């Protein structure tokens, strides 16, 4: 991008013949860029992450030029307001780190549950494992570091917090997030390869945790 039309904090990198990696400085810029790029002709896939958006184009679509011109005309300082799906996750707050999170936040266990379940979250991006969604909107008091020693096995459906994110483990795996609870037994699986789409959550979805 030229200096005259390059938004602050934006860098473009070619990824093969038909993809562009957009490097950004914040989750807000990622959300704004993803929304703008979704309408470009020739786009076949968009993959947002914490500070990047990977844009894949049909061969011959002129992706780099299109991305450069569009982002040069786009206000990336605020996330767009757009229609999104609302997803409710029935949840049980009985996690092994619930008391640790409450103590670190200076709250009672009951107030910690109310604070976490009372917030509305947004899927910023997905990664780590199929169906794992990184949710923004975590209240400040619950923004805490990962465990000093990660667990070798976190059970499927575990609800955790780490840094500015909250999320749910879609499958059993190692992990270092502080665990508040788990999805209720009647919750839909976060990832089901027999379902279309296979992932329950997608970037832009609004998510609430419902106490059971």
Task: Please give a structural write-up.
With 212 residues, the chain is of the alpha+beta class. The protein has two domains: 11-72, Gyrase A, domain 2; 86-211, Cyclophilin. It is built from four helices and 13 strands. It has helices at 27-37, 63-72, 98-105, 109-118; strands at residues 11-14, 19-23, 43-48, 52-57, 86-92, 121-126, 133-136, 151-154, 158-162, 165-168, 173-175, 178-183, 206-211. A hairpin with a 6-residue loop joins strand 6 and strand 7 (133-136). 32% of the residues are buried.
Task: Break the fold down into its secondary structure elements and pairings.
Blueprint: E1 11-14, E2 19-23, H1 27-37, E3 43-48, E4 52-57, H2 63-72, E5 86-92, H3 98-105, H4 109-118, E6 121-126, E7 133-136, E8 151-154, E9 158-162, E10 165-168, E11 173-175, E12 178-183, E13 206-211
Parallel strand pairs: 5-13
Antiparallel strand pairs: 1-2, 2-4, 3-4, 5-12, 6-7, 6-13, 8-11, 9-10, 9-12
Instruction: Let me know the average pLDDT.
Output: 91
Rounded to the nearest angstrom, the distance between the terminal CA atoms is 51 Å
- Indicate the radius of gyration in whole angstroms: 19 Å
Strand order of the largest sheet: 7-6-13-5-12-9-10
Strand content: 25-35%
CATH superfamily of the largest domain: Cyclophilin-like
Supply the number of helical segments.
Answer: 4
Helix content: 10-25%
Q: Regions with pLDDT < 50 over 5+ consecutive residues? A: none
Class of the largest domain in CATH? Answer: Mainly Beta
Give me the CATH architecture of the largest domain, please. Answer: Beta Barrel
Per the CATH scheme, the topology name of the largest domain is Cyclophilin
SSE order, one letter for each helix or strand:
EEHEEHEHHEEEEEEEE
Structural class of the secondary structure composition? alpha+beta
SS elements, strand count: 13
How would a textbook summarize the main sheet? 7 strands, mixed
Overall outline: elongated
